[in-house]
Specification:
- The protein has a single domain (29-185), classed as Cyclophilin, CATH 2.40.100.10.
- The chain has helices at residues 2-27, 51-62, 157-164, and strands at residues 31-36, 39-45, 69-75, 79-86, 112-115, 128-131, 149-155, 179-185.
- The protein is built from three helices and eight strands, in the order αββαβββββαβ.
- The chain has an eight-stranded antiparallel β-barrel.
C-alpha cells in the first residue's frame, strides 16, 4: 500500500507541477481597460499567440497614445475601429509597423480585437478593431494575409454592442464622437 500510495502521490504532484504553468499563463494574460464616453470595457491580450503585436499594442497603452482618440470607423454587423485619430479627426503619429501575426490560431470572432492595416500585410501600427460578429473572411489563409487577432473583450461587450449602433456619416465616421478617454493596463 505504501509503494502504491507513493506512486500515486508522485503522479499527483507531477500532474500539478505540469498543470500549474498552464493555469498561471491564463491568469497572467495582460488586461487592458478602455474608458470611453459610452462606458468601459476590458480586453485580455495574448502575448503567447501574437508577441510582437501585443508588445506593440501595450507600448501604445503605456505611452498613453490611445487617450483622447476616437472610434473613427463603425460598421454595424462588422466591426468598430479606433486608436488612430483625435476627436477633430487628426491622425496621430505612430511608430514603425509590426510584422503580420495573423497565422497564430486566433480567429476574427465576435468580441475579438485585431490590428487594422492597409493592403500591405505588414503595415499595422496603432489602429485596432473589435469584431462585432464572426468575420471568417478576415482570418489568415496563408502566411501573408488575414488580420492579426491578439485578444478579446472579457467584460463590457455591451459597450461595444452600443458603439456599433452609433449613427454614422460618410466614411463610416460616427456623427457624434465615440471618445476613448483612457486606456490602461490593469494586469
Amino acid at each position: 500500500m505504501t509503494k502504491q500510495f507513493s506512486r500515486w502521490t508522485r503522479r499527483m504532484v507531477l500532474s500539478c507541477v505540469i498543470a500549474l504553468p498552464l493555469a498561471a499563463g491564463a491568469e497572467t494574460a495582460p488586461k487592458v481597460k478602455f474608458q470611453t464616453n459610452q462606458g468601459d470595457f476590458v480586453v485580455e491580450v495574448y502575448p503567447d499567440k501574437a508577441p510582437k503585436t501585443v508588445e506593440n499594442f501595450l507600448q501604445y497603452v503605456k505611452d498613453k497614445h490611445y487617450d483622447g482618440t476616437i472610434f473613427h470607423r463603425i460598421i454595424d454587423n462588422f466591426m468598430v475601429q479606433g486608436g488612430g485619430f483625435t476627436v477633430d479627426m487628426k491622425q496621430k503619429t505612430t511608430r514603425a509597423p509590426v510584422p503580420l501575426e495573423a497565422s497564430n490560431g486566433l480567429k476574427n470572432n465576435l468580441g475579438t480585437i485585431a490590428m487594422a492595416r492597409t493592403m500591405d500585410p505588414n503595415s499595422a501600427t496603432a489602429q485596432f478593431f473589435v469584431n462585432v460578429k464572426d468575420n471568417d473572411f478576415l482570418n489568415a489563409k496563408g502566411a501573408a494575409d488575414g488580420y492579426a487577432v491578439f485578444g478579446k473583450v472579457i467584460t463590457g461587450m455591451e459597450v461595444i454592442q452600443k458603439i456599433k449602433t452609433t449613427p454614422t456619416g460618410p466614411g463610416d465616421v460616427p456623427k457624434a464622437p465615440i471618445v476613448i478617454n483612457s486606456v490602461t493596463l490593469v494586469k
